[in-house]
Amino acid sequence: MSLEKIIAISGKPGLFELMSQTRGGFLVTSLIDGKRQSISMRNNVSVLNEIAVYTYDKEVPLKEVFIAIREKQNGEASISHKSSKKELESYFLEVLPDYDEERVYASDIKKIIQWYNLLHKADLVKDLNLEAVDAEKVSDEEE
C-alpha cells in the first residue's frame, strides 16, 4: 500500500485508510483500532502522499522522510512522539539534517514520528520505496 490511501483527519487521532467515497464524504478505516467510519466532506483531510517537509533548499516528500527514519531505525519503530522537544529535534536532525528549523515546528516533528510509528505498527512502512517517489517526481515534471 502506498501513502495515497492513508489520510489524517483534523480533530481525529491517528491515521486512516481511505476505503471508498460515499455520497457525502468518505468511508475510512482507522489504523489504530481497525474500526470503519464515515467522514463528512466538511472534515479537513490531509493525504499523506501530498505532505512535504521544508528543508533549506527544497520540500522533501513525507514518504522520503519515512524511508529515512526506517533506514535509521533498521526497519524498527522510531523513538516515542512523547519524547522531549529537544530529543525530537535532535532525532529529526539526524533523519533529515537540512530541515528548516524555522518552518518545521516541534509539533510537526512529533506528528511525523507518531505517524511513522502508526504505519510501522500497521506493517506499512516496509512497503515504502524510493523508486515510487522518483516515478512521482517524473510524472509531476511531465505535466
Could you describe the 3D structure shown?
With 143 residues, this protein is of the alpha+beta class. The chain has 2 domains: 3-48, SH3 type barrels; 51-129, Arc Repressor Mutant, subunit A. The chain has helices at 62-72, 85-95, 106-121, 130-142, and strands at 6-9, 16-21, 25-30, 36-40, 45-47, 52-54, 59-61. Strand 1 (6-9) and strand 2 form a beta hairpin. The radius of gyration is 15 Å and the shape is globular.
Helix content: 25-40%
Count of individual beta strands: 7
Low-confidence stretches: 132-140
**Mean pLDDT, all residues:** 88
Strand content: 15-25%
Structural class: alpha+beta
Largest sheet geometry: 5 strands, antiparallel
Coarse shape:
globular
CATH architecture of the largest domain: Orthogonal Bundle
Please list the strands of the largest sheet in the order they lie side by side.
4-3-2-1-5
Tally of distinct domains:
2
Treating each run of at least 4 consecutive H or I residues as one helix, how many helices?
4
Q: Order of SSEs, N→C?
A: EEEEEEEHHHH
CATH class of the largest domain: Mainly Alpha
CATH fold type of the largest domain: Arc Repressor Mutant, subunit A
Whole-number radius of gyration?
15 Å
In angstroms, what separates the terminal alpha carbons? 24 Å
